[in-house]
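Human:
Take a look at this sequence-structure pair and walk me through the C-alpha cells.
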Amino acid sequence: RVTVQRRKAGARSWTPIKVLSTNGSGYWTLRQTVKATADYRFRWQPADPYGAPTGPVKTSDVLRVSLKRKR
C-alpha cells in the first residue's frame, strides 16, 4: 500500500490524500486534479512476499506540481 500526501504552498505539514494498492509489480497510479500549486510525495512500508512489514517506512522525494497556465 502507498499513501500519497500533499503539502499546500506555505504549509509545513503533510496531509494524506489517498491510500492506494499496488499491482503485482509494485506499480500504482493516481489521477488528481490540481487546483493550486502544491508539493506531493508518497510513503510506503516495505513488506516481505507474505505482506509482513520489513524495515522502516520509506518516503519519496518531493514533487512540486503547478497549474498549467492558459494562453
In short: DSSP finds no helices and five strands in the chain.
